[in-house]
Design a protein that fits this description.
Layout: H1 4-17, H2 29-43, E1 53-57, E2 66-69, E3 75-77, E4 80-81, E5 91-100, H3 106-111, H4 114-117, E6 121-131, H5 143-148, E7 153-158, E8 162-163, E9 173-178, E10 181-186, H6 198-205, E11 217-219, E12 227-228, E13 234-239, E14 243-248
Parallel strand pairs: 1-11, 3-7, 4-14
Antiparallel strand pairs: 1-2, 5-6, 5-11, 5-12, 6-7, 6-8, 9-10, 9-13, 13-14
Length: about 250
């Protein structure tokens, strides 16, 4: 295991150079989250304000969720042309993003349960997360190294916002097109409901005493596993009854 400082240095070097570096593993999850914060400060992503875009999720409800604040330069509207963006690899996750309709402080976050947290959400949209890595080992890097590297986040695309309302997520249809390859998924969210992430995410995001403002956004985990795209391909993600998002790679 390596120190927080070593992991920060490696990730900052990778982002400055545009090249991947050998993975460095922090000692535990708390250290990995500290690395996220240190890298964000050193690169000036958020200034003195809290991050406004996040990713949150996990493989199952009984396992720990993970969270990462997302650099604002890599958050784009649907239709964005990312051919000039320096991706190392292009994993594609089809997701639903949720938007807060009110400010949330630590006291409120501590009281939340999944059944009540949806009252804080005013809108949802289709999102595409591009998965990427600063580690040369990419998916073969340790779980803690991936967590320190924003859980392998590359970029986020947001579709048009729609008013939030309860849905039958078990019947939700998701369609993904990458180039000419088409994929269809039904009810495949790992947590069964994207809003399941809300209490844990909000407790994490406010744990330093900050208030997360209305308008903050979280993308909530993949419906399609991890698909792969090539440079030059177009990506289209649609959720029946919600909308779509598009990205040119």
């Amino acid at each position: 295991m390596s120190s927080i400082e070593e992991t920060v240095r490696a990730l900052v070097q990778a982002r400055h150079s545009g090249a991947t570096v050998s993975a460095v593993t922090p000692p535990d999850a708390e250290a990995a989250y500290a690395v996220q914060e240190r890298v964000a400060r050193e690169l000036g992503w958020f200034g003195d304000a809290p991050a406004r875009h996040w990713k949150s999720g996990g493989p199952a409800r009984h396992l720990p969720l993970t969270h990462a604040p997302l650099p604002p330069r890599g958050v784009w509207p649907s239709g964005h042309d990312a051919r000039a963006w320096p991706f190392h690899w292009r994993g594609i996750e089809a997701e639903i993003a949720l938007r807060l309709g009110r400010d949330v402080d630590a006291a409120l976050a501590q009281r939340l349960e999944p059944a009540t947290a949806t009252a804080l959400v005013d809108a949802l949209c289709v999102s595409i997360e591009v998965v990427d890595s600063r580690w040369t080992e990419a998916r073969e890097a340790s779980a803690l190294a991936r967590l320190a590297d924003l859980q392998s986040h590359g970029a986020l695309v947001l579709g048009a916002w729609q008013p939030f309302a309860p849905r039958d997520w078990a019947a939700q249809v998701c369609q993904v097109r990458i180039g000419v390859a088409e994929h269809r998924f039904v009810g495949t969210h790992s947590l069964a409901d994207p809003a399941f992430v809300l209490p844990d995410w909000l407790r994490h995001a406010t744990r330093d005493g900050r208030t997360l403002p209305a308008g903050s956004v979280v993308t909530t985990g993949t419906w399609c596993g991890l698909l792969f795209a090539n440079a030059g391909e177009a990506v289209h993600v649609g959720f029946d009854g919600i909308g779509h998002a598009d990205l040119q790679l």
